[in-house]
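pasting for the record
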Amino acid sequence: MKQKIALLLIAPLLFSACEDVFFTEGASTDPSVVFEAAWAELRDGYSFFDVKQINWDSVYEVYQPQIRTDLTEEELFNVIADMIFTLRDGHVNLIAPFNVSRNWTWYLDFEQNFNREVVERSYWQGQEKLTGPFIHLEIVPEIAYIRYESFARGWSTAQLHYLLTLYQDTKGIIFDVRDNTGGSIENTFSLARQFADQERLAYQYRYKSGPGAQDFTDWRDYSISPADTAVYTQPVVILN
């Protein structure tokens, strides 16, 4: 889920999780008011301060002194963007008409583990099929290979049924999600159900429920159950 913060100095500054940002007329254009609103909104709504060992009050002490009444829109944007960057979170962005702050360089700290040219030349060799978002083939006898490049891309029931029916008699599937660009978590659940032999606990989650650092709901379970049709229960190896 993306948290978005929109900066328009003729409108209030608000955060939103996976929904549009709404503005009302007559909001303050004072840089100090805008900064305080941004800092407080994250203080009250961001979930990972403890996990990341970030003292948000200390961050305030660093960036608040940079706020002046004569800051331009872009200067104010840069101060708040720098403050948000300390979260090291690619899903928290500052949005303005002239720029979008981002922390998309986190992956540069990791070695590249997918070379499309190598895969195409040495493994696909022009024999791959394209079914919806999936690139697939029987890469060696009785072993299927399926590549899914973005969890943002959905599929039809017919496409997924075709894919799993095609390989139902194989001894295993290599499922390649390396270099995946992310997207909808619901797509991951839909896929997982196609490979579930029984109901299993997938993960536990909780929501931020208040402004305090420890204000969370109780933990809740999320389980995956087998899909109604075309369930594949042979071994699956995931390349990630």
